[in-house]
Amino acid sequence: MELITAWVDQYGYIVLFIVLMLEPLGLPLPGEFIMSYCGILAATGQMNLAISFVIAVLGCLTGRTVSYWAGYKLGVPFFQKNGHRFHMGPEKMEKTAWWFRNYGNWVLIIGYFIPGVRHISGYFSGISQMPFSKYAVYAYTGAVIWIGTFVVLGKFLGLQWKLLRSNFDLDAWALVIVLMLIFIFYLYKNIRYKGKYMGK
């Protein structure tokens, strides 16, 4: 993460755009972390919140559009043969299919918050020949909600960080950080467990 934050510190919006463009294509990049970090930088005046939001949305929409058309053009046979190379093996495809069967097109919105589903739902939509206009409505709306959540969360944390530094000693805010990390880890494990269970 230190390398990534160094890149963001140096190249800012360019790194934000590239990461948010590549993650929807299936690359294991820390999109949530990058957005939150940019929000923190916005809180300290090093980046602009509105520009960060727009750049992140443009990057994400670019990646989501490319993944849809890749799935649409390449089709089922290609991904059955080569899906494992893009972290799109049968297990993840079945997991995504389960979400679509149970939640329909709304999974394109909530799927951004589900590890694994976010990365392949664009391909899956294209493979299933979903009309692009319908895909765009749900997927693009989901992107705006997802990005707004983490960018604003990052700014909020950044503001709280400044408050903590000015009012508490090192031990106090270090304890807060540890508690936050424990909470995030708990959420991650809980979501991951549910995802495995539902994918069966």
TrEMBL record:
What is the species of this protein? Desulfotruncus arcticus DSM 17038
* Entry keywords, A to Z: Membrane, Transmembrane, Transmembrane helix
Q: Which residues form the VTT domain?
A: 30-155
Q: InterPro entries under this entry?
A: DedA_domain (IPR051311), VTT_dom (IPR032816)
Q: Describe the family membership recorded for this protein in Swiss-Prot or TrEMBL.
A: Belongs to the DedA family.
GO CC terms, sorted = plasma membrane
The source's domain of life comes to: Bacteria
One Pfam short name: VTT_dom
Instruction: Answer whether the UniProt record assigns the keyword DNA damage to this protein.
Output: no
The name under which this protein is listed is: Membrane protein DedA, SNARE-associated domain
| Sequence intervals crossing the membrane | 12-29, 49-70, 103-125, 137-158, 170-188
